Amino acid sequence: MLLTDIVVEHTRLSKKDGVRQTYLLHPFTNTQRDTLGKFEIVRDIRESGGKEVKRSAFVTFQHLAELYAKGVLDEFGFSVRMCPGQGTYPAANPLKKILPTSIRPGSPFDLAVQKVDVSKPANRELRTALLRTNVKLEG
Fold this sequence. Notes:
The chain is of the alpha+beta class. It has four helices and six strands; from the N terminus they run ββββααββαα. Strand 1 and strand 2 form a beta hairpin. The two termini are 30 Å apart. The mean pLDDT is 92.
């Protein structure tokens, strides 16, 4: 499923022929068993020894809205795995940050973000998912 409430424009420059292609990207849900129907969030972390690695977690629509509402995506530098609404992307689907301007006002996702009670702690499932990315939320 594509989350078309969020649209990010992305321009890719082909290394082969130098052609620029612009895509309108959306977050999409995974189709694998354990992560079926969940969105992939990714962040870069530095492991002991100074090595940069990417860590990802899979979250539900509601969790994605909660993370956005609480500023967790921005605070910890998360990106979301995206794919084009039309056609296919010629390489691995890119990661993009979700800016407020990327969310369609009044859309179901926008409304879900507005409904989040930011004073309540994250539930156990979300906290556990974030631990995979070395992010610990209190509560």
